TrEMBL record, chain A:
TPR repeats lie at residues 268-301. Residues 8-61 form the HTH cro/C1-type domain. It comes from Saliterribacillus persicus. PROSITE patterns: HTH_CROC1, TPR. It comes from the Bacteria. One of its GO terms (cellular component) is cytosol. This is Helix-turn-helix protein.
Automatic annotation (TrEMBL), chain B:
This is Phr family secreted Rap phosphatase inhibitor. The lineage of its organism: Bacteria, Bacillati, Bacillota, Bacilli, Bacillales. Residues 1-23 form the signal peptide. The keyword Signal applies. Keywords: Signal.
Amino acid sequence: MQDFGSLIRYHRKKKGYTLKQVSQETSYSVSYISQIENGRHSSSVVVLETLANVLEAPELLRVEEDFTKIDQALDTWYQAMLNKNLPEVERLAEKLSSYLPKPFYTTLNTKYELYHFRYLLVTDKITEAMHIFPEFKEHSLGASGLYQKLARKIIGIYFVKLNQFSTALQYFEEISTETNTLSQEDPELNYYLALVYSRLEKIMDSIESVNKALLYYRSLNQHNNTLACEVLVCINYIIAENYVTAEKKLFNLLEAYQQSKPSFLKESFITHNIGYVSLRLKKYDQAVEYLKKAIKTKTTDQEKSSSYYLIAETYAWEGYAKLALTFIDICESIKENPKYQYKAFILKNIILGKTTTKPFIEKLENEILPYFKQIDDQTEIEDISKMLGDIYYNARIYKMAADYRKTKKQVHYLENLQLKYNNEGR
Amino acid sequence: MKRKYLIIAIIAISLIFTTAGQATIAGNDADYPTSVTENF
């Protein structure tokens, strides 16, 4: 136990003893004591008692007991986070913050730092998480073995929360490409990989990962988690434009949900997506019905804004401009969710036929597109660039149109092509 | 005769470009559940 060793070193230096002096007093060899201090040798109770006596530090005897207790409390805390038992999470957070961080408890401190960051994510304390992120990243990525993997996963989840999916993917992929099989057995990692792939529209990769997670959760009858995975499968059907299957599956899920009422998966994850697929199927009444149901079970404005936006879009497709504009106003007033503030703004200008006006184009180019680039939302970047390309094309400014139209995918293909050519040249 | 085909071709090409020139709204507006349990 490395922590324990550094505590012995601390007490030795406090007494002003050298290793040699302790060795003389205890009759243990210098190298043996040095190994204990460096955590390369665990000490027996007898050795501990001797050292505690010589160094006049009785607290050394209590340390091991304290260590185990805190370590267990940390694990209980983490488990409570995963089970979304928020009162318990908060209770333990307060209790643990009075014990940790503590000097010499290096491994416990590392563990605490990791769990604490995850705690901020679970309890949606994003601003605080952003504040400590640079320091956290530096510390946690320097940790060893398992902790480093956990750190990568937690950092990945942090970027998912910030909607920065490409960055999140980098962290998740770093873990999954490592040879250690343990990472492949973590269904949570597979779920997040599937989520991020889906967000980046890499549907085949998403299917592969979500199936791994599903297999695990189904075999253990974990209903909550299985449902979450199934929702993701349905979303993939929507992205692949297989709307009929998506709709059928989502209704089955809703039925399963209502029978079991899982504790921490919100019904809105199903109802919102039923609304979304209904819109794509042009079943407008059904879309509005389910999106409104989703809003009822959502708790924060930030969560609600995606459903408000889709209601606005539904009314727009139906041709009810006034109704659409009412919901656009709601979206634009929710500052916590800039994505839908901007999407609502774009929809408003489409409805009002103002997409060729200068203020609209300027805001699109100077504010909205940079925002989506900053949060790295590739789908929106592509859509908005395409829209700007179309606007410039219609205005017969072909150079600008071409620049916007060749964003992302085409550039990628071109790079791949050149790479292949170079390889063949060899 | 050649001129006739040329005109048809021009019309076809311009038709393709006008449909591409419409403003579109797409994007991914699904709600993803973001909490599952890991394996210890």
